[in-house]
Amino acid sequence: MDITVSDRAIQELAELGVAGPQFLRIAVVPGGCAGMTYSAGIDSKLSDEDSVVFQHEDVRIVADEGSAMYLQGLEIDYSDDLVQSGFRFRNTMAAKSCGCGSSFGG
Q: What is the mean pLDDT of the chain?
């Protein structure tokens, strides 16, 4: 799986408690004007359909089988600028994306 997570995003995830038994779960769900969007949250329960799609030391990112196939080429960054602070998800392999950048199409 080719996912890139910036050092700043890894640092922010660790500060949020995403380490050890807890991980960031990313799911791809229908939505947005381009068709699909990301859902992310902190979780601690793995299922048989989950796989670790990124790991750096204790920081892990997990996705279910259906979502993992859309994560190839995903870049995750974190920005604390005044206009749009927070995590930023950019998929370099997406066939299309919406103008505001909140959804993509395969």
A: 86
